[in-house]
Design goal:
By secondary structure, the protein is of the alpha/beta class. It has six helices and nine strands. The strands form two sheets. It has a seven-stranded mixed beta sheet. A two-stranded antiparallel ribbon has the order 8-9. Helix 2 links the parallel strand 4 and strand 5. The longest helix has 12 residues. It is globular. 33% of the residues are buried.
Length: 201
């Protein structure tokens, strides 16, 4: 069966039509590397994984950074929507396709002479990063089995293809580690906007 096509630019239109009709006529969890404005102050870059950003009076608050192979494209797309500094990068969880592109976020901040974003995450994310480092070879092996058949051109692989397999780091060396951690819940107040974060399994 062929994957569903991407026919509609606006992801909200696709979502509404799918929910209202109950029918799936086109792809809805898309990897377009394009930014869409959801409202005046909220955007989404559809990637593997998505980045959702909010404008505040003290810069952008962005959720997730996509993976190592897609992070640069995600940041480039975001910058067509806003060139405001990213004040905070929130990790929804520690999977590599949500945090691996954070090096591109840091590089963008440095190039623009912006402050490095505060990285907000649950305490388990740091533990996951440490586990990724301790089990690097194992993670590379199992992910090569799961994702190894995906072409490099698709940018859906985990990343690190540019290095020799034995040197490949599952958690990219430029990934940003959490700098503000919480356990059960946290209210992140940025530029007059409160973001309520709750841990759940």
């Amino acid at each position: 069966m062929n994957p569903l096509p991407v026919l509609t630019d606006d992801p909200v239109e696709v979502s509404n039509r799918t929910i209202d009709s109950g029918e799936l006529s086109e792809a809805f969890n898309r990897v377009t590397q394009k930014v869409s404005e959801i409202t005046d102050d909220i955007s989404v870059v559809e990637s593997f994984s998505h980045m959702v950003s909010f404008k505040t009076d003290d810069g952008l608050v962005s959720f997730d950074a996509s993976g190592a192979a897609t992070g640069g494209d995600v940041v480039s797309a975001l910058r067509t929507w806003s060139t405001d500094p990213i004040s905070n990068l929130v990790y929804t969880h520690g999977h590599i396709d949500h945090v691996g592109g954070s090096g591109a976020v840091a590089a963008d901040a440095a190039a623009r002479e912006h402050r490095t974003p505060t990285v907000v995450a649950h305490t388990a994310v740091r533990e996951r990063f440490e586990r990724y480092q301790a089990t690097n070879g194992w993670n590379n092996s199992i992910n090569a089995r799961q994702f190894g058949g995906i072409s490099k051109g698709s940018k859906l692989s985990i990343g690190g293809e540019e290095t020799v397999k034995s040197e490949r780091q599952f958690l990219p060396t430029d990934a940003m580690w959490p700098s503000l951690e919480y356990s059960d819940s946290h209210v992140l107040s940025v530029g007059g906007t409160d973001f309520e974060l709750f841990h759940d399994k």
